[in-house]
Fold:
Amino acid sequence: MRLGVHIADVGTDHAYLCAYLALHDAKASLLACDIAENPLQNAAQTLEAYGLTDRVELRLSDGLDNVKSSEADDILMLGMGGTLISRLLDRCAWLRNERKQLILQPMSRAEEVRAWLCNHGFCILEEAVVREGRRLYIVMRARFNASNADDFPFGYAYFGELPKLDATEAKIVLERTAARLEKKARALGEAGQDDAAQESYAFAAAVRNAAH
Structure:
């Protein structure tokens, strides 16, 4: 996260993250967005409790639909499914700007987010795996690169930058991903969809190879 920039938190819910950022970055310009009024009311209560109502602007917006390019340098989309994140990114053309930074935390289908980024000229600069209790969460930092070549390794959507991490959590995520793909492949094989089954086995093998 960059300091002192315009930040848009999409799907802010209770605005806990915006409150944290406001308390730790005095120069940040913070915009908390949500698709419904009720989460924004929860966000308002959080900001009032911390005395931050003048630091964070609340905005009713479906994704970035009601956000201007000039209002956001760092865009946060956290705690959503990968399919939804990809759809929201796809609707916002001004994200294709090398000065914008994306911080993404898909709760599911991280491969869809990676695939969307790779197919639309974005580079994944780094990934991390964060543990909260028994849950493991993948976080990505990405940026548009107009000269980005579409030459990603086979299976990259499934393993991304995780093999570069020397962390137990990353290895667990990769193992789970490979196991999930193999389970899918067996189910496809049993259903007589041999070509699709072989593709899933190949993706699983790519994940395991990347992890070692």
